[in-house]
TrEMBL record:
Entry protein name: Recombinase family protein
TM stretches of this protein: none
The organism of origin for this protein: Streptomyces solicathayae
Pfam families reported for this sequence: Recombinase, Resolvase
PANTHER family: DNA RECOMBINASE-RELATED (PTHR30461:SF23), DNA-INVERTASE FROM LAMBDOID PROPHAGE (PTHR30461)
Lineage of the organism: Bacteria, Bacillati, Actinomycetota, Actinomycetes, Kitasatosporales
Amino acid sequence: MGKREETISKLRGVPEALPSVEEVRAMLAANPHLKCVVCYARISFDGRVKDAHGIEDQHRDMTDHARRLGWLVVYRYTDNDKSASKESVVRDDFEQLLADLTAGATPEGYPIHGVMAVNDDRLYRRPSDWERYLKAFTSKEDRVYHDSNGVQDLYAEGFEIKGLVGVAMSLSETRKKQRRSRNSHRSRAIRGQSTSAWRPFGWEDDKVTLRPKEADAIRTAAHDVIAGASISEITRQWKEAGFITSRGNPFQYATVKQVLMNARLCGYREIKGELVRDGDDQPIVGEWESIVTPKEWFAVTAKIRERGRGTGVPRGGLVHKYLLTGILRCGNVLEDGTPCNNKMIGIKANDWLKYQHAYMCKKTVDGGCNKTYKRGDKTDDIIEKLVIAKLEKEAASRAQDVPDWDKAEPLDRAIRSRNELERRWHDDEDTDIDDEAFFRNLPVLERRIKDLRIDQAKHEALKAEAEAAQEDIAKSWKSKTLTQKREAIKKVLSAIVAVPGGKGNKTFDPDLLKPVWRTSE
């Protein structure tokens, strides 16, 4: 149990050194004015330190007040790091408090004569919670309630309405704070200022200056993803290099993906997945140093989204151990005259052999014929040389530059139409654009703009990929990861048919490997 969990545990339930239920009942019999009260503490955000100091302070204050009033605290309810204004948040201890108030006693059997909170907004922030709490509280007579305003009479006539007014004011203030926070966040973003609460990975504590080693790792990872590397491989590399997140946690698939898809990498700002743009609809450039170019960032995000296919399921989790697993196909001719054509698997070679791995057709029980076996190192070497030669030929023959994006004018026209629609709607003198017409036409224009921007991003990704392909293919091949090499092979080869032969000490025959090249489409 961590320190925070240990603190919360101590601040929940029966306080230490509290007399037994029988002893408390004897105390009540001797002193009819004694009140057994319960304390409720809650905080929405436990802070960056996460040490539960907020609820600890609340319980300390309530205990001090109870001592001054001559009350006995018999139970403590604690909801740490939980909002009271969000319907989706379930406050377990608050629900337990309501149940115990209705029952009239704590789970251990201590009677409940009253409730304490540092402020009423700790207990409730929504009208429904206030009504439920008041109903549970007043289910028994003569209870006391204490908060920052002192002892309150919840049974008084009109107090229910007073409470609802207080809840409404509290809820209104909460929404104001949220709105001010959103507006402030967006205003800072439009000014190009950093809005990160934590130091972003890749930058120093000032959130502007690059941290060289981290920035280099991100830059390399971006180039690798464009070239075909998986997020799983990048995650493994960062873990092996000893990198941790700015919050001090080991990198996982999701956090690496989050880093690489952050528009901050190229100097842009995003809010809820949308780039922040200026009055001319151009992306806002931040005050911090960028790590990659916008073109490279568009390419990275396009690659990652393409693999995810919008399912939300992480792709690339399976990392093959051998280069040609599933790419090699068995070319053995079966008894009925048809080729086996089963995908071959990579296996570890026997220890007495000179090579480390081999490829073989699966056993008959697994759908193969178990007739084809190929030495791994020489098979890999031959196919790699063929693929490199093919890639170099293609790179030399095709145009070096992707044509300019040809939809800039339609995008500009759609943006102008949207801006004009908004202007006419806001203009009181314009009578032909009412609310119904505005909200009917606006989504159509917004959808058109969004689709064109997606197309623009894909085009930028193609340009970045084409530029990366112009590098020295043979030289860069050695530095590619296994997944990158497999992706490159699958781009130019549909399969490699391996004809039986060459097993054991026989001379390896490269002619028994038949590449099936992809045709240009």
